[in-house]
């Protein structure tokens, strides 16, 4: 028994000390940074966005729809007023820009994580899965050496945008596990409703697309005169099978392409038919965690394209990217 | 330019020590256990009694009653509801004891779990409708929303969530399309705190009166209509006004629920401010 536990421990420690090309988490960093900008830029730069900040996050004395005491940090900054909230969102926006271009290492990620968490926690009633995924993504990026490559930091440090120096692989593996948990648990939760099962003819999406809360055009189904019944049932089947089975990407790396392509298709569908904030963008930003080797190859290809041609006598200095072979599990 | 890089470089020998590698592995394992335990499927909070009465839930219970009958098990929907409520209460109590330390840790690092998105369709969604009455000097009453016309006043629709926005100068289209605003309006119909509806009406009342001086009454409604189900497409569906709040110019209000006037005129009082729980302990998207 002791031996077996020891072997499990050694296996797990071995899993956490592997290294790989840092391109996958760098791409996650860029994706999450851009998703954050999709969320934050309207808040600080548009009339409607400022109105949303006032209405949803400020106290009713300052244009909000409800009385709010504010989170401890917001209270410390002066209470749930528009200027405090906008200050937090502007700080997070600037941090997101630095995070996307990869400047100042993990510091902007830390700033964005704190500022968005403090501001969005102001009213949990208007929060959702997107905010939860954002918190998780920023936490995982903080653990990773995600500005080692594909960043301005890298350019300033090495003179190139791509640095093939291996980085720790465990933060990427953790991010992949987190992504699998998000999808699989969401799918399993859906099974409590017969609308996602054959008992009710996989009618879930047909009905959800009529919800004025989430559907972009709730009248679409009513106006379609029934021809959407079969496509919506097929989409419901694809969604539930894909979500419940997503944990397989941890066990069967060869199937990752199938899950990734299906995932992109489903998220494009969600983005065009529903209004769910940045959840879809954030989810897709985590997809590079499924393909560390391929991300390394893309980075190497980019490096060759961006680098000025070397003199004929100089041997190529870029080592091959290090990555988990497909059979290595995570 | 990375402020942490020199620090990490200085600490590199420490990070390569076998004891640190084992400790790090242990911390990663604990994080994984925390994430899996907290994300484990469960309703985030118990369903309030009013939610069990909703058509969608009752239809679901009836469906299970019929399915059980086909395999020879006779259970009424009331039995299944009682059993479900019991299991839910017990499971939540056990779960709370098991996961609270992990939950605290995950909240502290901003990695809250709880993934339930579009778990079940709302079969009778309620649409938030905002309208106002003003003095009708045209005599046409073109924009009358539900045919209400009293004396010389006419009712004008401002918006009907998901369908129409008639006055973009009063409520911006991008504001209304935003998922956070939709979620707030959704809370008005589904929230266990029924005061959300009144809070939203009060906020819109303030907004409309600031932007237009000719507003007489501000009217908020929750209008319910069953969704079209593939198996029951031919069934007639009609709108039902579930709740209506009229806010008069003098600050008094008049509330109607299910067609019955439940509240006479009284001023809307501001409820005490309550600090909110940390965000995103899981919610619909």
Describe the model.
The complex is a heterodimer of chains A (330) and B (285). Chain A contains 16 helices and two strands. Chain A has 330 residues and is an all-alpha fold. In chain B, a hairpin with a 4-residue loop joins strand 6 and strand 7 (252-257). In chain B, 41% of the residues lie in helices and 19% in strands. Chain B is built from nine helices and eight strands. Chain B starts with a helix and ends in an 18-residue tail after the last strand. The model of chain B is unreliable at 141-147 and 274-285 (pLDDT under 50). Chain B has helices at 5-10, 12-15, 18-39, 49-52, 55-70, 77-108, 173-177, 179-190, 195-211, and strands at residues 126-135, 149-150, 153-160, 164-165, 215-224, 240-247, 252-257, 260-267. At the A-B interface, helix 1, helix 3, helix 6, helix 7 and helix 8 of A face helix 3, helix 5, helix 7, helix 8 and helix 9 of B.
* Oligomer description: heterodimer
Mean pLDDT of chain B: 82
Report the total helices of chain B.
9
Report the β-strand fraction of chain B as a percent range. Answer: 15-25%
What is the H/E string of chain A? Answer: HEHHHHHHHEHHHHHHHH
**Apparent shape of chain A:** globular
Please describe the structure with a list of short key phrases separated by commas or semicolons.
heterodimer; A: 330 residues; mainly alpha; 16 helices; 2 strands; globular; disordered C terminus; B: 285 residues; alpha+beta; 8-stranded antiparallel beta sheet; 9 helices; 8 strands; flat
Short structural summary:
The complex is a heterodimer of chains A (330) and B (285). By secondary structure, chain A is mainly alpha-helical.
